[in-house]
Write a structure and sequence with these properties.
alpha+beta, D-Maltodextrin-Binding Protein, domain 2, 2 domains, 8 helices, 14 strands, 28% strand, globular
Protein backbone atom coordinates (compact mmCIF):
# COMPACT_ATOMS: atom_id res chain seq x y z
CA UNK A 1 0.00 0.00 0.00
CA UNK A 2 2.79 2.46 0.83
CA UNK A 3 4.32 2.04 -2.62
CA UNK A 4 0.91 2.53 -4.24
CA UNK A 5 0.28 5.73 -2.32
CA UNK A 6 3.76 7.02 -3.10
CA UNK A 7 2.85 6.67 -6.78
CA UNK A 8 -0.43 8.51 -6.17
CA UNK A 9 1.34 11.30 -4.28
CA UNK A 10 3.84 11.86 -7.08
CA UNK A 11 1.03 11.75 -9.66
CA UNK A 12 -0.97 14.36 -7.73
CA UNK A 13 1.98 16.71 -7.34
CA UNK A 14 3.00 16.43 -10.99
CA UNK A 15 -0.58 17.02 -12.11
CA UNK A 16 -0.70 20.02 -9.79
CA UNK A 17 2.41 21.51 -11.41
CA UNK A 18 0.79 21.22 -14.83
CA UNK A 19 -2.42 22.79 -13.52
CA UNK A 20 -0.54 25.78 -12.09
CA UNK A 21 1.30 26.36 -15.34
CA UNK A 22 -2.01 26.48 -17.21
CA UNK A 23 -3.63 28.53 -14.41
CA UNK A 24 -0.94 31.20 -14.79
CA UNK A 25 -0.78 31.31 -18.60
CA UNK A 26 -4.41 30.97 -19.71
CA UNK A 27 -6.79 28.15 -20.56
CA UNK A 28 -9.71 27.17 -22.76
CA UNK A 29 -13.14 26.36 -21.29
CA UNK A 30 -15.76 24.05 -22.76
CA UNK A 31 -19.01 22.59 -21.42
CA UNK A 32 -19.59 18.88 -20.83
CA UNK A 33 -22.92 17.18 -21.49
CA UNK A 34 -24.15 18.09 -18.00
CA UNK A 35 -23.17 21.75 -18.60
CA UNK A 36 -20.35 21.59 -16.05
CA UNK A 37 -17.14 23.32 -17.16
CA UNK A 38 -14.09 21.50 -18.49
CA UNK A 39 -10.73 23.21 -18.96
CA UNK A 40 -7.41 22.43 -20.56
CA UNK A 41 -6.08 21.87 -17.03
CA UNK A 42 -8.66 19.15 -16.24
CA UNK A 43 -7.64 17.19 -19.33
CA UNK A 44 -3.88 17.64 -18.82
CA UNK A 45 -4.08 16.57 -15.16
CA UNK A 46 -6.13 13.49 -16.09
CA UNK A 47 -3.52 12.44 -18.63
CA UNK A 48 -0.63 12.83 -16.19
CA UNK A 49 -2.36 10.98 -13.34
CA UNK A 50 -3.49 8.15 -15.61
CA UNK A 51 0.07 7.67 -16.87
CA UNK A 52 1.34 7.15 -13.31
CA UNK A 53 -1.53 5.04 -12.00
CA UNK A 54 -1.60 2.69 -14.99
CA UNK A 55 1.77 1.38 -13.77
CA UNK A 56 0.05 -0.06 -10.68
CA UNK A 57 -2.22 -2.35 -12.74
CA UNK A 58 -5.34 -1.35 -10.78
CA UNK A 59 -8.35 0.04 -12.70
CA UNK A 60 -8.90 3.80 -12.75
CA UNK A 61 -12.22 5.60 -12.47
CA UNK A 62 -11.59 9.27 -13.25
CA UNK A 63 -14.07 12.08 -13.72
CA UNK A 64 -12.44 12.91 -17.03
CA UNK A 65 -11.88 9.31 -18.18
CA UNK A 66 -14.08 6.63 -19.67
CA UNK A 67 -16.86 5.52 -17.31
CA UNK A 68 -17.39 1.79 -17.72
CA UNK A 69 -20.77 0.17 -17.24
CA UNK A 70 -21.59 -0.99 -13.73
CA UNK A 71 -21.68 -4.59 -14.96
CA UNK A 72 -17.92 -4.34 -15.41
CA UNK A 73 -17.10 -1.96 -12.54
CA UNK A 74 -18.87 -4.07 -9.92
CA UNK A 75 -16.22 -6.75 -10.45
CA UNK A 76 -13.52 -4.40 -9.18
CA UNK A 77 -12.18 -5.38 -5.75
CA UNK A 78 -9.68 -2.51 -5.67
CA UNK A 79 -9.37 0.57 -7.88
CA UNK A 80 -8.32 4.20 -8.12
CA UNK A 81 -10.96 6.93 -7.90
CA UNK A 82 -9.72 10.24 -9.29
CA UNK A 83 -10.78 13.84 -9.74
CA UNK A 84 -7.90 15.41 -11.70
CA UNK A 85 -9.10 18.94 -10.90
CA UNK A 86 -11.71 19.20 -8.19
CA UNK A 87 -13.22 22.67 -8.12
CA UNK A 88 -13.06 23.60 -11.79
CA UNK A 89 -15.43 26.51 -11.08
CA UNK A 90 -13.00 27.78 -8.44
CA UNK A 91 -10.15 27.33 -10.92
CA UNK A 92 -12.00 29.46 -13.46
CA UNK A 93 -12.76 32.09 -10.80
CA UNK A 94 -9.04 32.06 -9.92
CA UNK A 95 -9.63 31.98 -6.17
CA UNK A 96 -7.11 29.17 -5.61
CA UNK A 97 -9.57 26.79 -3.96
CA UNK A 98 -9.16 23.76 -6.20
CA UNK A 99 -7.42 20.44 -5.66
CA UNK A 100 -6.15 17.22 -7.18
CA UNK A 101 -7.90 14.20 -5.62
CA UNK A 102 -6.73 10.58 -5.77
CA UNK A 103 -8.26 7.81 -3.64
CA UNK A 104 -7.72 4.07 -3.39
CA UNK A 105 -10.97 2.17 -2.91
CA UNK A 106 -11.31 -1.38 -1.63
CA UNK A 107 -14.66 -3.22 -1.57
CA UNK A 108 -16.62 0.02 -1.68
CA UNK A 109 -14.61 1.72 1.08
CA UNK A 110 -12.05 4.46 0.56
CA UNK A 111 -8.91 3.29 2.39
CA UNK A 112 -6.32 5.87 1.30
CA UNK A 113 -6.52 9.39 -0.04
CA UNK A 114 -4.24 12.04 -1.51
CA UNK A 115 -5.27 15.67 -1.97
CA UNK A 116 -2.86 18.22 -3.42
CA UNK A 117 -3.55 21.97 -3.44
CA UNK A 118 -1.55 23.41 -6.36
CA UNK A 119 -1.77 27.13 -5.49
CA UNK A 120 -0.47 26.72 -1.92
CA UNK A 121 1.70 23.63 -2.55
CA UNK A 122 0.03 21.80 0.34
CA UNK A 123 -0.38 18.03 0.40
CA UNK A 124 -2.88 16.04 2.47
CA UNK A 125 -2.57 12.26 2.81
CA UNK A 126 -4.75 9.82 4.71
CA UNK A 127 -3.85 6.17 5.28
CA UNK A 128 -6.05 3.73 7.16
CA UNK A 129 -3.19 2.38 9.30
CA UNK A 130 -0.83 5.37 9.55
CA UNK A 131 -3.21 8.30 10.05
CA UNK A 132 -3.67 11.64 8.32
CA UNK A 133 -0.96 14.15 7.45
CA UNK A 134 -0.52 17.67 6.08
CA UNK A 135 2.69 18.68 4.35
CA UNK A 136 3.21 22.39 3.62
CA UNK A 137 5.67 22.57 0.73
CA UNK A 138 6.66 19.59 -1.41
CA UNK A 139 10.10 20.74 -2.57
CA UNK A 140 12.55 17.94 -1.85
CA UNK A 141 9.78 15.51 -0.99
CA UNK A 142 10.17 12.11 -2.67
CA UNK A 143 6.59 10.99 -2.04
CA UNK A 144 7.53 8.24 0.39
CA UNK A 145 5.34 7.55 3.40
CA UNK A 146 8.43 7.40 5.61
CA UNK A 147 9.46 10.94 4.68
CA UNK A 148 5.85 12.08 4.99
CA UNK A 149 5.58 10.76 8.56
CA UNK A 150 8.91 12.36 9.51
CA UNK A 151 8.26 15.80 8.03
CA UNK A 152 4.50 16.40 7.86
CA UNK A 153 2.07 17.50 10.57
CA UNK A 154 -0.10 14.71 11.97
CA UNK A 155 -3.80 15.53 11.83
CA UNK A 156 -5.96 16.66 13.49
CA UNK A 157 -4.53 19.73 15.19
CA UNK A 158 -6.04 20.93 18.45
CA UNK A 159 -8.60 23.71 18.16
CA UNK A 160 -7.74 26.88 20.05
CA UNK A 161 -11.22 28.34 20.53
CA UNK A 162 -14.70 27.35 21.70
CA UNK A 163 -16.50 28.14 18.47
CA UNK A 164 -18.35 25.32 16.73
CA UNK A 165 -17.32 25.63 13.12
CA UNK A 166 -19.51 24.57 10.22
CA UNK A 167 -17.91 24.36 6.80
CA UNK A 168 -20.16 24.94 3.81
CA UNK A 169 -19.68 25.10 0.07
CA UNK A 170 -18.80 28.42 -1.50
CA UNK A 171 -20.78 27.54 -4.63
CA UNK A 172 -23.60 25.34 -3.25
CA UNK A 173 -25.51 26.42 -0.12
CA UNK A 174 -28.86 24.64 -0.27
CA UNK A 175 -32.00 25.29 1.78
CA UNK A 176 -31.42 21.97 3.56
CA UNK A 177 -27.92 23.09 4.57
CA UNK A 178 -29.29 26.34 5.94
CA UNK A 179 -31.94 24.42 7.93
CA UNK A 180 -29.30 22.04 9.32
CA UNK A 181 -27.21 24.98 10.50
CA UNK A 182 -30.22 26.52 12.24
CA UNK A 183 -30.91 23.20 14.05
CA UNK A 184 -27.39 22.77 15.43
CA UNK A 185 -27.36 26.34 16.72
CA UNK A 186 -29.59 25.04 19.54
CA UNK A 187 -26.69 22.94 20.89
CA UNK A 188 -23.83 25.24 19.92
CA UNK A 189 -24.31 28.89 20.89
CA UNK A 190 -20.92 29.94 19.51
CA UNK A 191 -21.17 28.90 15.88
CA UNK A 192 -19.13 30.08 12.93
CA UNK A 193 -19.62 29.29 9.25
CA UNK A 194 -16.57 28.92 7.02
CA UNK A 195 -16.84 28.67 3.24
CA UNK A 196 -14.41 26.72 1.09
CA UNK A 197 -14.35 25.33 -2.41
CA UNK A 198 -13.68 21.77 -3.62
CA UNK A 199 -12.42 19.02 -1.31
CA UNK A 200 -10.81 21.62 0.95
CA UNK A 201 -14.03 21.42 2.98
CA UNK A 202 -13.21 17.83 3.95
CA UNK A 203 -9.61 18.82 4.62
CA UNK A 204 -10.82 21.36 7.20
CA UNK A 205 -12.64 18.55 9.02
CA UNK A 206 -9.53 16.36 8.91
CA UNK A 207 -7.36 19.18 10.24
CA UNK A 208 -9.71 19.85 13.14
CA UNK A 209 -10.28 23.39 11.89
CA UNK A 210 -13.99 22.64 11.42
CA UNK A 211 -16.42 20.44 13.33
CA UNK A 212 -19.04 19.52 10.75
CA UNK A 213 -19.59 19.66 7.01
CA UNK A 214 -23.20 18.98 5.97
CA UNK A 215 -23.61 18.29 2.29
CA UNK A 216 -27.21 18.51 1.09
CA UNK A 217 -26.31 19.17 -2.54
CA UNK A 218 -24.98 17.04 -5.40
CA UNK A 219 -21.49 15.55 -5.37
CA UNK A 220 -19.96 12.69 -7.29
CA UNK A 221 -17.86 9.85 -5.89
CA UNK A 222 -14.61 11.33 -7.22
CA UNK A 223 -15.37 14.61 -5.41
CA UNK A 224 -15.33 12.99 -1.97
CA UNK A 225 -13.36 9.72 -1.91
CA UNK A 226 -9.89 11.16 -1.24
CA UNK A 227 -11.14 13.62 1.37
CA UNK A 228 -13.27 10.92 2.98
CA UNK A 229 -10.19 8.73 3.44
CA UNK A 230 -8.27 11.63 4.99
CA UNK A 231 -11.15 12.47 7.35
CA UNK A 232 -11.37 8.82 8.45
CA UNK A 233 -7.62 8.61 9.01
CA UNK A 234 -7.78 11.75 11.17
CA UNK A 235 -10.45 10.22 13.43
CA UNK A 236 -13.50 11.81 11.83
CA UNK A 237 -16.27 10.20 9.83
CA UNK A 238 -18.40 10.70 6.72
CA UNK A 239 -21.90 9.29 7.11
CA UNK A 240 -25.14 9.38 5.15
CA UNK A 241 -27.30 12.31 6.24
CA UNK A 242 -30.44 10.18 6.46
CA UNK A 243 -28.72 7.13 7.97
CA UNK A 244 -26.27 8.42 10.56
CA UNK A 245 -24.68 5.02 11.20
CA UNK A 246 -24.07 4.22 7.53
CA UNK A 247 -20.83 5.31 5.90
CA UNK A 248 -20.68 6.80 2.42
CA UNK A 249 -19.85 4.03 -0.08
CA UNK A 250 -18.07 3.96 -3.44
CA UNK A 251 -18.34 2.24 -6.82
CA UNK A 252 -22.11 2.32 -6.71
CA UNK A 253 -24.23 1.77 -9.80
CA UNK A 254 -25.09 5.47 -9.64
CA UNK A 255 -21.88 7.45 -9.07
CA UNK A 256 -23.86 10.37 -7.62
CA UNK A 257 -23.38 10.56 -3.85
CA UNK A 258 -26.37 10.68 -1.51
CA UNK A 259 -26.46 13.55 0.98
CA UNK A 260 -23.86 13.15 3.72
CA UNK A 261 -22.44 14.73 6.86
CA UNK A 262 -18.71 14.78 7.60
CA UNK A 263 -17.91 15.52 11.22
CA UNK A 264 -15.71 14.94 14.23
CA UNK A 265 -17.08 14.57 17.73
CA UNK A 266 -20.80 14.77 17.02
CA UNK A 267 -23.12 17.70 16.36
Amino acid sequence: MEKLIQTAIIAAIEAGKAIIEIYNTGFDIELKKDNSPLTTADKKAHKIISTYLKETAFPILSEEGKHLDYAERKQWHQFWLVDPLDGTKEFIKKNGEFTVNIAFVEDGKTVAGVIYVPVTDILYVGLKEEGAFKLAGTSGFDGSIEQLINTAVKLPKNKTDNEYIVVASRSHLSNETSSFIERIKKNHPYIKIVSKGSSLKLCLIAEGKADVYPRFAPTMEWDTAAGHAIVNASGGQVMLAEEEKTELKYNKKNLLNPWFIAERGGY
